Amino acid sequence: MTAATTDPATTGPTQPPLLSLEGVDVVLGRGWRANHVLSEVDLKIWPGEIVGLVGETGSGKTTLARTVVGLIRPRKGRVTFHGAQISGLGRTARRRERRSGHVQLVFQDPLRSLDPDLTVAQIVGEGLKIRGGLDRAEIERRAASALAKVGLDPTLLHRTPGQISGGQRQRVSIARALAVDPELLFCDEPVSALDASNRNYILRLLGELRDNLGLPIVIISHDLSSLAGIADRVVVLYRGRIVEDGPVAQVFTAPRHPYTALLMASAPSVQHDRPLTVHQLRRTAADPAAPSAAGACVFAARCPFAVDACAVQPALEPVAEAGADRWSAACHRADEWQPLARERAAQAAR
Amino acid sequence: MSGKPPPDEALHIQDLHITVHDGAAVAVRGITLTVGAGEIVGLVGESGSGKTLACRAALGVLPAGCAVSEGTISFGGQDVTDLSRRGWERLYGTAVGAVFQDPASYLNPNLTVGGQLAEVLRVKQRMARADAHRKTVELFAAVGLHDPERVFHQIPAELSGGMLQRVMIAIAISCDPRLLIADEATTALDVTIQAEIIELLKDLRDQRNLAVLFVSHDLALIRELCDRVVVFYAGEAVETGPVEEIIDRPRHPYTQALLRVASVGDFQRRELRVIPGQPPQMGEDVVGCRFAGRCPAAIDACRSGPIDLLRLGPGHQARCVRAGDPELEAAAEAELAAR
């Protein structure tokens, strides 16, 4: 399941992307409360791929997912799905698009996103009921088939979310999304509330859904090493901007953005052989002042390698390397900082 | 393991049993563990394995319906098993401090964080207002908060999750306790912040000789921080030992399974392993090993009677009848080599 996941014939550059975001800006709130959550986000999802979206709290991961399903309207930019623009639709058209169920969200905390008073069967069938056009027997049949796809025992059909375990609840969330036959699944931190065994179980399930149904999946997560086991491509967000986007194997072997490297160095691990330690990637008091003017690189304030050029936000540029396939990073010093990092002390000064 | 615990032990739990649902079921079955001064001990296990209950018993705050039915808990030689509420009040802050998963829910949202720490000092140590302020700013600086004077006057909503957790740690260590209990203290934080909090806990241990009981479901995190680890499974300690030894030579099949599913930091594509089956229900009585139903190496002897902790090396014990079996050892070695 883990090897040879992307088939170039179906995901090659000749194939048009399924979902495409171009220059998307999202501002939440207005007036003095306006908060620029996403800036100039360019993202493409091709059919049949699993994309991992990582970033810290407040980096805009969830806003991105909500923008794609039409819960938030971008201020600028276009969101297109199957070549048709879905951003900036009128009210009725937007509702029709949402009810079509093309893109489905799976939320982080199933205990809060599932109605505690409904049974599993009702939760999974609800989307079909709202969409309409199906009789009760057909809804039940499709709900049962969605539950079978996630490997849930039919004896759980008449339990409520409070009566099943955490791992089972997350599978109900996924079944709920699958019931309406989506073409793209967005999972918002699907495993962060689970322990290691259940986490791997859910991630494997998502991998199987992609393999069996050809369903493209975006997984939002802060756990890089479990993403490495399943995703084909990883997209790193920092303060509303994509700072790196590329194939998992390449990004995690030689990250081009210092923030990606910091995330990798910070991830806990049972083995202790890291190419770079967190101390080599964190700013210290000894580092020269970073550019802090408005419009500076979003990461400059935390970046130990910031220079004067970083006073201007770098654009997402393709990585210049042989064999780099759809790999881009937004860093002025993408090819220069690695030797500098290795020269820094690996341990904290005491 | 028996008799009077030596006084340099910050926490000693002896044969602890905890019942839930007003005594209807036993959730924790005979845990023995010790945290020495300046030592960081990790508790690891699945959700529902009883690690949080054991922790709460050690803090004297078991939820309603739960009770310690057998065993003793002591801090530095003082038995606290049947301590009164007032007795516990005297120990909080001075003998033991605690940090939990969600820092925002333990702070008053309407008061400044500095004021909340200063209040502790004024009540517990009878400090004057100005002294409490000064000590608070010192403590905030000690836990790595930038510009502590400014943070003093901020309310919880103005601080990030990582900063709030630092404030909680500052409150927990404000009266110089010997022991800090951290229950999933970094689970809700971003990885970069988590790494900083882990370092802070290590620094506090080095500077103050603080003992830490660190509860987590993530063996990878335990590996980063702890000196010793106790592996919980379905209310029992199934393996305990120095962390390097447990990671490099796990002897209990459950520990081996946990290691297989833990994060490995090489970011290579790998098969995501799972532990098949479910743990026994809380309170369910199982003859013999409680892991036998999920264990790939289970034999008849595993199900015939109670299984004792087997001593395997210095400080290393496992509750497995096959722990010394050469056949299993060879299989484990082969797996480690492949890792």
Descriptive notes:
- The complex is a heterodimer of chains A (350) and B (339).
- Chain A is of the alpha/beta class.
- Chain A folds into two domains: 13-238, P-loop containing nucleotide triphosphate hydrolases (Rossmann fold), CATH 3.40.50.300; 256-343, no CATH class.
- Helix content of chain A is 33%, strand content 18%.
- Chain A is built from 13 helices and twelve strands.
- Chain A has helices at 8-11, 61-68, 91-100, 110-113, 120-131, 136-149, 166-178, 196-213, 224-228, 248-253, 258-266, 278-281, 337-343; strands at residues 19-28, 35-45, 50-54, 76-81, 84-85, 103-106, 184-188, 217-220, 233-238, 241-247, 317-318, 328-329.
- In chain A, α5 (120-131) packs across α6 (136-149), α6 packs across α7 (166-178) and α7 packs parallel to α8 (196-213).
- The model of chain A is unreliable at 1-11 (pLDDT under 50).
- With 339 residues, chain B is α/β, with parallel strands linked by helices.
- Chain B has one domain (9-95, 177-338): P-loop containing nucleotide triphosphate hydrolases (Rossmann fold).
- In chain B, 33% of the residues lie in helices and 22% in strands.
- Chain B is globular.
- Chain B starts with 8 loop residues before the first strand and ends with a helix.
- The relative contact order of chain B is 0.13.
- The interface between A and B is large, with 44 and 40 residues.
